[in-house]
Amino acid sequence: MQTRTLGTTGPQTSALGLGCMGMSALYGDSDRTESLATIHAALDAGITLLDTGDFYGMGHNELLINEALRTAPTAARERAQISVKFGALRTIEGAFTGYDGRPDAVKNFAAYSLQRLGTDHIDIYRIARLDPDVPVEETVGAIAELVEAGHVRHIGLSEVGAESLRRAAAVAPIADLQIEYSLISRGIEDTILPTARELGIGITAYGVLSRGLISGHFGRDRKLAANDFRGMSPRFQGENLDRNLDLVDALRKIAEQKGASVAQIAIAWVLSRGEDIVPLVGARRRDRLTEALGALDVTLDAEDLAAIERAVPAGAAAGDRYPAEQMAHLDSER
Ligand SMILES: NC(=O)c1ccc[n+]([C@@H]2O[C@H](COP(=O)([O-])OP(=O)(O)OC[C@H]3O[C@@H](n4cnc5c(N)ncnc54)[C@H](OP(=O)(O)O)[C@@H]3O)[C@@H](O)[C@H]2O)c1
Q1: Catalytic residue among 27, 56, 181, 206
Q2: Which CATH number fits domain 12-333: 3.20.20.100, 3.40.50.80, 3.10.310.70, 3.40.50.300?
Q3: Which keywords does the record carry (predicted)?
């Protein structure tokens, strides 16, 4: 497995991380047995970085990772690096009602996560979205205290903009910023990515397949379950979907010439953007994971990159990456 290092202070990780969210939430129903097998296959392949959130299935995802690590071959916990997001407030019915970044809440969230994960430390800990009522310094300061106490190894951030990156980095070393980055979500390139680089903060990129939209497996006739985020995501609706899938068709031609799949080209493109970027792939089945791992063998030269740029120019996506009320929570979009 190829490796990368998250920022100047962060850990060395596998070059691809496994995002486990879809195994518990947001993309319709999932298969528990297949989810566990997928995590095991990822560990077998040398993936060390497992990403989760305490609110993915309201604890379900952390319990799943706990079980996967307990039932994996020996020393799986020692090899795995668990990245946890916290802070989301939810109703019993599952609605998201805000974020809590108060220091006491941070420590409370961490206590529950450690219990659910069955571990004595979290490798990277981050608030999923900033709490607008709590300065980032206070939230990050509370995680720094958890680092001091040995419960957390590294501090991360999620979906924050350049100014918040600077303010957070002034409090404590930040390993990585987790943020959406793909061929059709390139908003970080103007200021956020250069700022992260200036501050020595790595990037864990999510949505590298734009939640399956640019995977080559998503068709116009796909029926989405009521509990699938994509059913309300602007990029998956009507004309937007048509225009976005036209981009995928253009990408497919390049993939065919390279003898790779569309998903592999999309992941390889994110890998090519810098050694400081670790794509999180959201595979929830072993066949998808195998495909994603194949991206590590795809080399894109200058000509390939230029062809990809022509097929999917920056800003070509139709529709925002989140519904309006969720866009409002993104510090990175201010
Ligand atoms: N910080 C944040 O705000 C944030 C937000 C979202 C996600 N995340 C993290 O990032 C991780 C990845 O995000 P994501 O799931 O949206 O990313 P993604 O990799 O763009 O999308 C994953 C979806 O793409 C489809 N897919 C098709 N071919 C695939 C392949 N070869 N490999 C993987 N997936 C394939 C699958 O859907 P089907 O199974 O339906 O085909 C899968 O559920 C999440 O699991 C989560 O840990 C973080």
Answers
A1: 56
A2: 3.20.20.100
A3: Oxidoreductase
How many helices (H) does the chain have, and how many strands (E)?
A: 12, 12
For 169-303, strand residue ranges (E) read: 176-180, 202-206, 277-281
> Which of helix, strand or coil describes residue 322?
coil
Q: Is 97 exposed, middle or buried (CB count within 10 Å of its CB: 0-12, 13-18, 19+)?
A: exposed
Catalytic status, residue 56? yes
Atom of ligand 1 nearest to the CA of 207: 20
In this structure, what token pair is assigned to residue 72? 């994996």
* Gap between the Cα atoms of 158 and 80, Å rounded: 20
Q: What does the DSSP assignment read for 23-73?
A: GTSSBS---HHHHHHHHHHHHHTT--EEEEETTTTTTHHHHHHHHHHHHSS
**Bridge partners of residue 82, in order along the sequence:** 50
**Whether the Cβ atoms of residue 277 and residue 202 lie closer than 8 Å to each other:** yes
Strands (DSSP E) along 128-201, which ranges? Answer: 152-158, 176-180
- The closest-lying atom of ligand 1 relative to the alpha carbon of residue 51 is 47
**Assessment of whether the complete model's pTM goes beyond 0.90:** yes
Q: Report phi then psi at 137, rounded to 5.
A: -60, -40
153 and 121 Cβ atoms separated by less than 8 Å: yes
The model's pLDDT over 280-317, given as tens digits with 9 standing for 90+, comes to: 999 999 999 999 999 999 999 999 999 999 999 999 99
Check residue 74 and give its pLDDT: 75
pLDDT (tens digit, 9 = 90+) per residue, 105-151?
Answer: 999 999 999 999 999 999 999 999 999 999 999 999 999 999 999 99
CA distance 150 to 162: 28
